[in-house]
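Project standup — Tuesday

K.O.: blocked on the structure for the chain from last sprint. Re-posting the sequence here as requested.
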Amino acid sequence: MEKLIITACICGAEVTKEHNPNVPYTVEEIAREAKSAYDAGAALIHLHVREDDGRPTQSAKRFDACIKAIKEVCPDAIVQVSTGGAVGMTNDERLQPLTLNPEMATLDCGTCNFGGDEIFVNTENMIIDFATKMNDRNCKPEIEVFDKGMIDMAIRLNRKGIIKSPMHFDFVMGVNGGISGEARDLVFMKESIPAGSTWTVAGVGRYQFPMAAMGILMGGHVRVGFEDNVYIEKGVPAASNGQLVERVVRLAKELGREIASPDEARAILGLK
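H.V.: unblocked you, prediction finished:
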């Protein structure tokens, strides 16, 4: 079994310091949390950015400042920018970080009802536009899917040459409006992707560590971090993203899976 790539989603767009006071907003805080995850074993940093007051932003200037700060303390880490942004942002807003020519970016492959009146909109034409812009910049997409139909969308666009092979999927599981985070659901998602694809599982909330354990055993990769879950155990806020990564590293070692370095992760993902 290949080595395990751990992704740290260090802040997201929705979680706040009210949920956990250690959620990072400032450039310095974001670099601190990236380093805590990197030092613990994360090869890849999934990056949203915030204004100093916590508001989500897709500003290229803010992304640039955060990426440079992360690279100062995690020089070889893979930084994967989010093009999901936050609910309600325009396409042009969401695409701003691509102007920085990142190694990887997220490509959301379907629309999802996040609860209440919040709809995370990703039409087919939007997906095609985002994928084309990633191709133009030689940026590998991580195909974010919240349900099985989004895998089917990615496969259709792959057959048309819009999404390139080999594909890398991120199964986001347990989000309101998406697929649940039970063992049967992960098996179903994993068995639905084409041969030769790689995949990561991101369990949200209480699903984070059960899905991490399943992902390790099934030969996939794992995403953890404050974007998806702010607790190290029930009712106990995590001290850092690094603490969440450390728990995955312990699970992997107990289950006989080695941890991938950033350069080993690049080779697995076809980035080099």
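K.O.: great, moving the ticket to review. The mean pLDDT is 97. The radius of gyration is 17 Å.
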